Amino acid sequence: MRRIVVVLVVGVALAGVIASMAPVSGQADGEAAPIFGVTIPPGYRDWRLISVAHEKGNLNDLRAILGNDVAIKASREGTLPYPDGTIIARLAWSYDPLEESEKAFGRLQSFVAGPPKNGVQFMVKDARKYTATGGWGFAQFNDGKPADEAVHNTCFACHETVKARDFVFNRYAP
Amino acid sequence: MRRIVVVLVVGVALAGVIASMAPVSGQADGEAAPIFGVTIPPGYRDWRLISVAHEKGNLNDLRAILGNDVAIKASREGTLPYPDGTIIARLAWSYDPLEESEKAFGRLQSFVAGPPKNGVQFMVKDARKYTATGGWGFAQFNDGKPADEAVHNTCFACHETVKARDFVFNRYAP
């Protein structure tokens, strides 16, 4: 009986490890982005929400920031710098009027996520690998394909604006 | 050895069941909302993202729609009506300018989630329990406390606008 209990505990622990590894797996999934060599993290669309935003101007999108387990923990606890293993995903969609908004509210006031827009971006923390860019690797994928090198050269310059927050614009939305 | 393998498999399966139960637990957490008796679902902030939105007008917020496992599956597959056990959560935050936006983009164009605003709302599907309201129970909590009955009387009337989509405004954002 004791052996069964021990093995059960090992089994449960093992399953827990497998479950917790799944969303932070660094397994390659498709082509790597230039400069930083980041690939699309498997299962990122299942990650938990850090925050949401609306970009006006040329971007004109609604966006969500998701994080892997390391990112969520650091983000909730306000840990700076973010630990190695952090991956932050930025998804974005067209900023579309909700068709039924006027009927529901008496005027058009609701804007919702339409089709994907402006690609999907990732920030991957590896302090030793990415020393020249604050410990972060950056990547953008458009329709699953890496954007070109010119795009990737713009990432760090913009994120330097928030160097005091370890180069991360978003804050956790409780 | 064979016994160990069997027990291991049982252990792993058991851990999987426990893990998958956690986010859809209906365990009561705090005071129930009027009319529908809905309580705050434990762990809802860890649920996966369905979509995001921006409400202008008096609401003036940025919002995220999260779903429990039943909701995510139905939402991704376009299942209508949503199955019993579906819970959809609507979180909202103040629509705030991002302080560093002008520095990063040359003009203020980024708006992000500030402090929580307009409460947290839930839709709970139980076709037999909520026959009078399309099979949905509605709830709003402000700072963790249920809103009053008058607020809850407005939910279904507004959601009837989207009766053709089983009373759900949001669509899954891929």
Topology, element by element:
2 copies of one chain form a homodimer.
Chain A: H1 2-21, E1 48-55, E2 61-67, H2 69-77, E3 87-97, H3 101-105, E4 110-116, E5 120-125, E6 136-142, E7 145-146, H4 149-159
Antiparallel strand pairs in A: 1-2, 2-3, 3-4, 3-5, 5-6, 6-7
Structure report:
Two copies of one chain form a homodimer. By secondary structure, the first copy, chain A, is of the alpha+beta class. The first copy, chain A, has four helices and seven strands. The relative contact order of chain A is 0.16. In chain A, strands 1, 2, 3, 4, 5, 6 and 7 form a seven-stranded antiparallel β-sheet that branches. In chain A, 26% of the residues lie in helices and 28% in strands. Chain A is globular, with a radius of gyration of 19 Å. The termini of chain A are far apart. In chain A, a hairpin with a 5-residue loop joins strand 1 (48-55) and strand 2 (61-67). The interface between A and B is large, with 53 and 55 residues. Strand 4 of chain A pairs antiparallel with strand 1 of chain B.
